[in-house]
Every structure is written in C-alpha cells, then in structure tokens.
Amino acid sequence: MPTQDACPTPRQIEQWAVGRCTPAEAERLATHLEVCAGCARRFEAVPTEDPLTGLIRRLGPARAGGTDDPPSVLSLVEHLCHLPPPETGWSKDVPEDLLDPPGSPDEIGRFGPYRVFERIGMGGMGVVFRAEDTQLARPVALKLLRPHVALSPAVRGRFLSEARTAASLKHDHVVVIYQVGEVPRPGGDTVPFIAMEFLEGASLADWLCRNPRPPLPVVVRFGREIAGGLAAAHARGIVHRDIKPGNVWVETAPDPDGGTDAPRVGPGRAPRIRLLDFGLACSTSSLDRTTPAGTPGYMAPEQARGEAVDHRADLFGLGCILSQLIAGHPPPAGGRGKPEAPPEARRGDGAVPPRLDRLVGQLLAPRPADRPPSARAVESELLAIETRLARRPAARTRFLAGSAALLAVLGAVAAWSWRPGEGSVEVAGGRSVVVVSRGADEVARLAAENGWQGALPAGHYTAAADEDGVTVEPAQFTLKTGQTQRLTLHGGPPDGPVGEAWLTHVAGLPTDRQVQAVLRKLAELNPGFPGNSEFWAVQNGFVTEFRVCSDEIRDISPVRGFPGLRLLGCYGSKPGRGKLADLSPLRGLKLKALCCWYNPLADLSPLRGMQLAEFQAEHTQVATLDDLRGMPITTLTIQNTKVRDLSPVRGMPLWACYINGCPVADLTPLASTPVQMIRCDFRPDRDQGTLKSIKTLVNINHLSTEQFWRQAGHGPVTAP
To answer: Contact, 109 vs 132, CB < 8 A?
Structure first.
C-alpha cells in the first residue's frame, strides 16, 4: 500500500482543485488523496466560486437585500447574482491537449467521435461541453475530466463509476447517459468522458436566482419529481449522497422567442426535473464504509459525521431543497435541529398546507428512523398534496359565487380529509390511459403502471381516454362507498398484430401520442411489459430514438410505427433475462444504430441493407457477422457472444471494437480498419503481431498502447 506523505495545506488543496498548480504538484497531491481520506473530504468540499459571490448567488436579491438597504447595495447584489459562472483558474480557451483541432468554423475542436462547439460548465473536477455525436447526429453534453485531475487513478475511477451508476438508471427524472469511455490523447494518456443527454434549462440553484418565490404547486411538483428520480435510484440500490440544488436540473423547452434567459415559471412552460451528478453515489452494499463526502448545508447529520448512511440521507437533502423552495433559503444549519416553519406571510399564493409542513419536518428529522420510509412514499404524499392544491383556486372562486357555491367549497374543504379506499375504478381491456376528473380537477390516471385501476372517494366523476379516437363508457358515473366501477374503452387503433390499419392510425398522431401508441401496442403484444420507455427523442417532427428495457419483449414490431427511427435500443435487465430473438420486424427500417444487450437474438439477416454506424449485441446468441458485411460501422460491441470470424469487418470504418469474451480465432481482419480502441482477450501468440501492425490503434483494454505493451512485457510499440 502506498505510504502517506505529509498532508498538504488547505491552500494547496484549494489550488489543486481549481487547477492552479504545476503538473508535478498535481501528481503528488492526486497520489496523496488516494490514501488520505481526510484530505479527500477537504478536496470535495472546495467551492468552485468565490464564497461571498456564491452566498449572495444562493440567497438571491430578495434575501440579500432588505427593504432598508440603499439602492447601491441592491444594485450590487443584483449584479453579483447574475454574474457568469467563475472560471476557477481556467482560461477562456480550451487546453490545447484536451481537444483535437476543429473540423469546421462552428467548432472549437474535436474529441473522439464528437464535434465540440462550446464550453457550458466546469468545476474542480471536470469540464462540460456542448457537442454533437457525429455518428448519430444528436446533441450531447460531453463531460471530461480536467487533465491535471485525470492523473489520479482514484479520481478517474470515481469519474467512471459516476458514469456507470447514472447509466444504469432509466427514469424520466434522471439524466440519460449515452456513452462512457476514454479517448486516447497524444503521449499515450487517455481522457475519460461521459456523453449524456443535452438538456435545455438551468440548474435549480440558478433557476432559484430568477424565481426566488416559486408558487406552491411548482414547489410540490418539483419535490415530487425529485422524489421520483430518487425512488428509481434507490430501487437499484444506489444512494446519491449529494442531493442539492446544483445537482438538480430544471429542464425546459427552448424559448420560442429564441431567448437564452433561464426559464421562469409562466403559462405554457412546464419545466421537468432531472437528477444529475452521481459522482458521490454509492451502492447500499458499500455504505458501511463511506466517507463524509457531500455538500455542507445539504448533508444528513449521520453523513456529516461519517457514519453509515442509506437512502434516508437522500431524503434529508430533498427536505433541505423543499425548505429552500418554500422559505426562500435552506434550513438553519442544513436542517439539523428543529426546522424553521415556512413563513406563511412570504407566500403570495396562500399559506403552506400543514400536511406539507409536516412532511418537510419529517424529511429534516435528525434521526434517519424518524424520516419517511422511502422516496416512493414521499412521492406519493407529494402527489396527494399536489392534487389537493389544484382544488384550492376553484374552491375560492365558488365561494365568492354565493350560497350554492358555498356548498361546493365545503365539499372541496372536506376533500382534505378524504382517504383512498372508499370505492374503486377499473378499466376493461386497458389500452389507452383513462383520465378521471372531479369537476375541473384531474384526480386519477388509470394506466398500465397502476394496473388500470385505482381507489377514489365516493362522489361524481367524469372519465375520458387520453388517446385520439377512443371513448370511455360510462363517461360519467357516481361512485359509492365500497362500489367498484368498471369502465370500458371503445374505438381507437385495431387490436392484434401490427398491420396497415394500425400503422395508418399511428402515422396521423402527434409524436408524443405516437410514442404512447407504440408503448401500448408493445404492452398488448408482450404480456408482462409495463409499457414504459427508457428514452425517446424527436427531430424534425419524427421519433428518431426509442429505447426500452424489459425482459418481456418478444415482439418488437410496434416500432414500425416510427418511420423516422434511427436508433433503437431494446435491452434485457441482465445476461440471459431478455426474450427478444426475432428482428424480422426491423426489416426495411433505416436504422443507424441498434443496441440489443442481454437478448437471445441470433439471426441478423433482417439487418441486411441497413447502413448501421453502431451495433451492440453483447451477451446474445449471435455467432456470425456475415449479415453486417459492408456496413459503415464505427462502434462494434459483441462481447460475450459466439462470434469466431471477424472477416466481415474488413474495410469497416471502425473506431472502437469490443470483442472480449468471444471465441475469435484471428484478429487480422481488424488490420484493414482504422480502429483506435480495442477490448479483447489478449493472447500474445495470436494477437501481438496483428495489434502492433494497426497504425491507428492507440488504446488496448483500457490502456494506451505503450502502457499495454509495457505491462504485457513486450516493450514499447515501434512502427513496423
């Protein structure tokens, strides 16, 4: 085990975190942080902006400036709050050794298969660029480790661990990870990168600077969506450990007027929450030995003390965010002790409901045992609060209307004490989502995820299908205590296999309805599939990307409802779990990328004639690549398959090839490709000559070629 040098001073750690030290000092400090937990914690806590500016930026003009402050002070505070992000020791230019030269005037450089346009963020660890994937022509956010930080194997490991952790989560409120890897640089080093979904909008921290007093319905919805993302992570055994406004993204559609201001709350704008930055995330199996890394002010007390933590530490961070959204600032001392009651006088949209106040108090409880049992339970509670908040404005309007309206208000007030279970509603032949409303308020959505049924208080309701051409019978009904009301769907697309009538129906729908129609048909044809998409994307009015993760999909034919589909991902959950074996429904589609991990597919003949740029089929029954011959594939991933013959890849424009776990007999076909990165089961007698003859090769099995040959005991690579 490495010996521990004398600990650096706090100033040295701060200088290293912001890139203000020599390469030799950076390497020494990186090595020290690998063996010194105390200094590692201090490094994680280094702020990436000036403390005074950061404090004012978090407080916002409304908190930092009081009514008695002179105009000059208010002006200064307003100016500081809107300063651009700090440079933290980086110049405005990109380091020369980080990017390759640009290929066109609109670029600042190239990085592997990505065109890089501009830098959009940075911190002590890395830098984020707006870029484009040249293979799939889609925008991405490209996160790279800063060169001086990448010297540390421990830091590189944490960076790639973040990527793998986030990539394993598939949820509407978690950012989507497209690709993870390392790109070789001149000199033999590699730069780790994460290519993720490019999101419009702003971090919640920045959003709050422009929206310091969001309406209560927005507060509750944001909290519910954060809880939903956390529930997905916790279900996979992942604890985020750094829930704070800076790691929560408020995603919006681009401003229709072309403006670049951060999104505001307003008519027609529906921001969506996405969780970011899983750099401190841990598996629940390893949390008994965690260090107190995190962000002061949002860390749970047990996390700050370095004790074992579980999912309830994330719930504490959520409580801090909710308190900040409600009261305008984080709770005192990060929420420890008795939380400050949200001041009703500050709310322009009415008093904070006692139920919400109680929930925030429970989330901020010093003892984990006193917090809610799960993020899913918090999500359900916030959904109930959100539904009841929606009834408030209508209730006040009816009160002002007169005595008849007064009775309606009393009914609305009584709704606060209702509990589910007084009656139930179910949908027969569930295909379309059924929306159940009471008056003008939606109270339930019956869909595949809740088994097409739900519990409601006694009362009078209306029902409508959330799909064009589908009707519900009865459209109005009165539910009595203990009664089960059955709703029947009529009309809509035809049942049964995908045919011309169904395709014609789907083609006439808006893209979001097309996605729902395809998911419903997948659920119809694949019993057990819950009807959820991991991700889908639209370009120029067509659905171009569609991904599902399920062990129950055998029939993929509904994706033919996307005539513009270019990327299809159908994944099983683990090796041997998936059931997709028949790719014949894909015949004739103009796919550019196909990813089918963990499925038993073997026959690739339906792919003939496609111009695939990416093919991923690890842990499948694929035994031959003959049907891919002549395709312009740049990324080939066939790990743990039965492929023995690589001759079909001759002449392909390969950039990366992953063939480890395959019984490949000969690597020589790769010598005719410009491949730069290879993962294989290296056998010196078979592979040494071939690999050394590939002039473009710069990375083998996660090592630069020079490092690989040195470790293999064959000396440095020499040109043939």
So the answer is: no
